[in-house]
Every structure is written in structure tokens, then in C-alpha cells.
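Inverse folding, one chain.
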């Protein structure tokens, strides 16, 4: 599921670098995105393990992560760090997300072997035998977890 949390090589490197930080605090990584050249931005979405996330939580995570990045010199250029909650159209990036959001409307993008993309918008049933089940137009679609390119809730 790491490919849904961090997609590019650079994002995966950042994920591996900051993961030990998250093993010591009551927050979980939901997604990492890096974008921009002149305005280099590191975007980190987090959840609190035990309750709803607050603005103060985001500020705390931001301080902890930026202190570690600056101390170790992981980012070699000026950057902007954005820490936020996943929000209403939250990305589903972990197996537990697919369990937690059963019954909700989702959009799933599936990558296929011929590099085509399929898009499903429907109600999330859950994960059964390493396949995500989504009901769309009274039909159940089964999508292998490894073939999910993107998954998110629809508000």
C-alpha cells in the first residue's frame, strides 16, 4: 500500500525517511506529495490514531517533521511544508481506510496491464481476498489492491 501513500521515487524516499518519526508519535501518515520547482512543496496528510485531527495537531507534526528535515539536511533546497488532514475527499491509502469507509461513495482509478486506466465511482464494499469490491450501477467490481492507482472518498 506504500505506493498509494507515496508515489514518486522522491516521495518514497521522504516516506522512508520520516516513517520512524511517525512510529514515535500518535499520528499516522496518509499521503505524501511533493510538487513544484521554484516553490518546492512537501505536502503531508496525517490522521491522529485515537481521535479527530486538530489544527494544533497539524502544527505539532509540522514542527516535528521540519525540525528533523532541517537537522539532517534531507531537503537540499528551500521548501514549504504543508501538513493537513485528509479532508472530505480523503485519499484511501491504507488497508484500514478501505475497512473504515465501507458504505461510502468512492472513486477508484485502476491501472491495467495495457497501461489503460479504468475509473469506478460507486459504494465501497470492502476488501475481500486482496481485492477491493465497489458497487457501481448495481454491479460489483473487483479490483486487485495492487492495481489501484488512486482511491478517494467522494463528498
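Residues assigned per position:
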Amino acid at each position: 500500500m506504500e505506493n498509494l501513500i507515496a508515489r514518486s521515487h522522491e516521495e518514497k524516499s521522504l516516506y522512508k525517511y520520516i516513517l520512524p518519526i511517525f512510529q514515535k508519535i500518535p499520528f499516522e501518515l496518509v499521503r505524501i506529495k511533493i510538487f513544484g520547482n521554484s516553490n518546492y512543496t512537501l505536502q503531508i496528510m496525517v490522521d491522529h490514531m485515537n481521535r479527530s485531527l486538530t489544527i494544533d495537531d497539524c502544527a505539532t507534526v509540522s514542527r516535528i517533521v521540519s525540525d528533523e528535515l532541517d537537522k539532517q539536511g534531507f531537503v537540499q533546497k528551500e521548501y514549504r511544508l504543508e501538513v493537513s488532514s485528509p479532508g472530505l475527499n480523503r485519499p484511501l491509502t491504507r488497508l484500514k481506510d478501505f475497512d473504515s469507509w465501507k458504505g461510502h461513495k468512492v472513486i477508484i482509478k485502476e491501472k491495467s496491464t495495457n497501461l489503460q486506466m479504468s475509473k469506478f465511482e460507486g459504494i465501497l464494499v470492502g476488501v475481500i481476498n486482496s481485492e477491493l469490491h465497489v458497487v457501481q450501477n448495481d454491479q460489483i467490481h473487483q479490483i486487485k489492491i495492487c492495481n489501484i492507482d488512486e482511491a478517494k472518498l467522494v463528498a
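Residues 55-72 form the longest helix (18 residues). Residues 58 and 83 are 6 Å apart (CA to CA).
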